[in-house]
Each structure stands twice: as structure tokens, then as C-alpha cells.
Amino acid sequence: MNHREVAARAVAARLGAAGFTAYLAGGCVRDRLLGREPKDFDVATDANTTAVQELFPRTVPVGVQFGVVLVLYEGEPIEVVTFRADAPYADGRHPTGVRSGTPLEDAQRRDFTVNGMFLDPATDTVIDYVGGQADLAARVIRAIGDPLARFAEDRLRLMRAVRFAAHLDFVIAPTTFAAMQDLAPSVTDMAWERIGDEIVRMLTQGPRGTARRAFELLDSSGLLRAVLPEVAAMQGVAQSPDFHPEGDVWEHTLRVLAQLDGHSEALALAALLHDVAKPCTLGHKGSRITFYGHCEQGADMAADVCQRLRRSRETRERVDYLVRHHLRLTSAPEMRLSTLKRFLAEDGIDELLELARLDSLAASGDLTHYEFCMRRRAELAAQAQLRPPPLLRGRDLLALGLRPGPRVGQLLAAVADAQLDGTLRTRDEALAWVRGKL
What we know:
The protein is built from 23 helices and 13 strands. It is α+β, with helices and mostly antiparallel strands. The strands form 4 sheets. It has a 7-stranded mixed sheet with strand order 3-4-5-2-1-8-9.
């Protein structure tokens, strides 16, 4: 039992000692029944928010209008929610009002049966009004009650159904899936940031293979074309079989996604989008299929997608870099030594090398260029040649009589190149070289 679960049980126990009913609720119950380690613990209670705030000295009123208070217990944030029944939803996200309800009413307003169970921590008894235990045993994601009504209440549930099914390796109940297909075009009625968060969770959370399964479900449900039409456009775009025996761009991308296993947000998004421009750069040269410029155009498109998904500027810039340069390794063996050193010392090179590895394994499987770069980087790092301290700085050139200006930067860049090439090895050699230029 981890520290957060201990804290959640202690919060429930204190509520119980004060005469209130208090259960663990939602995903933590599901994960516990599946034998997984829950990450978050929520407590559902018949105590109202005022009573909760009076009972605990450290609280944050994160959503008192919806009956939600965050209790900070021994450093752990525990969300405490009053049993409630919701009024109709007007904006596809929030109910127009809430009222105190019973545990049964609270369970019935939740999203999926596997998330609608309670656990009495005093007795470790599962309280299941919605058939969640049966669906866990059958490995099914099923909306509680009328699926059209559940999804109309909160469009994000469309994305969450996909994520839960992929993460848990469950199937989606036919009636629930049919409702998802009916409502898929309306998924963009909510904030794009919420969609982006779900996409990132699909790509970065869960066991290996989760990302591929998630995007297959996004496709078959119709959600992919609604939220990422650029990715849906990859389907049916043929590639040269000598480099891509696996098939079209969509199948190649799915094979890249299948290898994701806890990678960073930026790398996961780059894995999804590295070939996003192939559909619009498709061409032919004789019998060969070409995609000239797809790296550069793809970087611009990927940055636009990241902007639409409301990702951070840091993420957008890193995705742009990874997509723009994901084929750059192929020219590494022909690079001048100084160019190769600069390349292998770039910020982001670790993720670029990993993207190239995933890309190659999803295609022909030829890792020649990846292995060359890894070998040369290790050799150069062992010789302290990747990021050597500069032989000269600007003040050294000013001391030689140069005036501040572009010429100083040009000479320092030339000295740095000569240093990386091994032509200049010492400060004295560099000063002599500059004097010769002057």
C-alpha cells in the first residue's frame, strides 16, 4: 500500500469517525481490482464541502460548486467529492447544476462502468451499482446507462473511452462504440487542450503497444479524422517497397507507435507526425515513389498540429526539430568531422537518434546509420571531442585589435570548426591562425 492510498484511507476514516459515509471511488477501485498500483485516489462522501473543509485543516476548494474539495493530508492531495446528481449539461463539459445525491445516483452519473464502483475502506467491500465488476471480468469498456447521453454530457469521454480500452487492452461494448461513431464529428466542440492532453496520454502512458491500439481505435471510431485529419490522410499512401516493405504510410506510422514505451511527449508526438507531409509531397521519379521535402514541410505541419493541440512552446520546438531532421542520420557517414561533431552534440540528439531507430525498425529494419552515429558519438565523447571548451573567446580577438562586429563572430566560428576538425589543437595555435587571417 503506497503513501497516497494510506492518506486516502485516513481521510475516509476521519470522515467516517465524524458520522459520514466515505468510500474510495473511481479509477483507484478499478486498478485495485485489476491488481494494478493506483496512481490517484479519490474519496466520495455524503459530507458537503463545508463539512469537509471544517474537518480538515488544509484544503483547496478546487470545485466547491460541483462538490469537490482537495484535501492535503500528510503532503498527499486527495480529492474528496460529495455524492451528487447532475443537472443537464449545456456546454458538453459541465452540468448546469448539481445537488447532493445518494451513492447510487453518484455512480450513475459517472462515465464508464469500470470507473463507477466504490470501495468501503473500512471493510474492503466493493460497492457496485453499475455492473463494473462484470465488465472488468469481461474486459469491456461500457458507458453507464445511455451511451449517447453520457457522451453528450462530456465529449471528452469519447477520447477517454479509447484511452481506457487501449491502456487496459479491453474492448469497447458495441452500443458504446456505435454511440462514439455517431458523435465523433462533434468531439471538437470542447477545448482543444483537453483533446491534446488525451492524445498525449494515449502516446505516453500504458504498456508498450498502447499507442498503436489507441490510434487504431481512434481511426475505427471516426475520431481520428475529426481531431487529426493530417494523420488520417496517411491511409492508402503507398511507399517504395524496398525501403518500406511494411506497406503504406499509415501502417508504417502504426508500427512506429507500437514501439513507444514511456517515451517523452515530444518524441511520442514526433513519432506520430514524422511522416505527416508524405501525403502532400507524394511524387514519382520513374518507377520510384518519392516524398521530396517531406521532412521540412512535415516539421511545419507538425508544429501546427502541436499548436492546435495546445502543447507548450518547448514541445512544439522539439517536435519541429525531430521531424525536420529525422532523416539526417543518413548523411552522417559523409559529413566532415567538424560537421559530424556539431551534429552529434546538438541539443535533442538523444531523441533524434531514438526516433531514427524507431523509424528504421518500423520499415526495413536497417540500423546502419543509427549504429554509425551511436558508435562515433561514443568514440568522440570518450576523447572529449564532442563539446570541447573553446580555444578562443571574443575578448581574445578584441585584445588582438579587432573591433566589435560580425567579423569577431565569423572568426570564432572558423576557429571552432578548425578545432572540431583537429586542425587547431591549442590556444596558441588558434591565436597564430587568427593573426595570420588579420
